[in-house]
Q: What sequence folds into this?
């Protein structure tokens, strides 16, 4: 697949990104969200969770590293926020490989903190703020 670039003019238009990502969730397990503070990573993940039927309220797992959500289809979704991660070993200590081997959907904010622990078949979503406060979002599926 080739990269897809979208323009999201405001948070209410997050459906544009959600509609592009949902079909990919049948083929990929790990989705990495890149962007500076305030780019909208958590906002887009919340919109995505709502659309794929996460049953509970979602929030950023900034202090817990990972939140686990059950979906209406009884599958689990793991939402990681690695911003406060000090070293990759912390991920291994909390069961990173178990999460990967669970075959459940994983949405990861600040994946660069995990370095080589991110699998090569992850989808990377790059979010860039524009001067007019819109967001340019590029979805890069694995090659």
A:
């Amino acid at each position: 697949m080739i990269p897809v670039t979208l323009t999201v003019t405001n948070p209410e238009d997050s459906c544009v990104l959600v509609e592009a990502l949902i079909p990919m969730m049948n083929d990929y397990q790990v989705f990495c969200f890149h962007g500076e503070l305030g780019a909208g990573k958590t906002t887009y993940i919340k919109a995505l969770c709502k659309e794929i039927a996460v049953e509970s309220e979602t929030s950023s797992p900034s202090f817990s590293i990972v939140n686990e959500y059950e979906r209406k289809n009884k599958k689990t979704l793991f939402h990681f926020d690695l911003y406060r991660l000090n070293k990759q070993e912390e991920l291994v200590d909390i069961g990173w490989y178990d999460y990967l081997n669970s075959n459940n959907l994983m949405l990861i904010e600040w994946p660069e903190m995990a370095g080589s622990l991110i699998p090569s078949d992850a989808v990377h979503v790059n979010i860039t703020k524009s001067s007019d406060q819109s967001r340019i979002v590029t979805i890069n599926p694995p090659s």
Summary: The first strand starts at residue 4 and ends at 8.
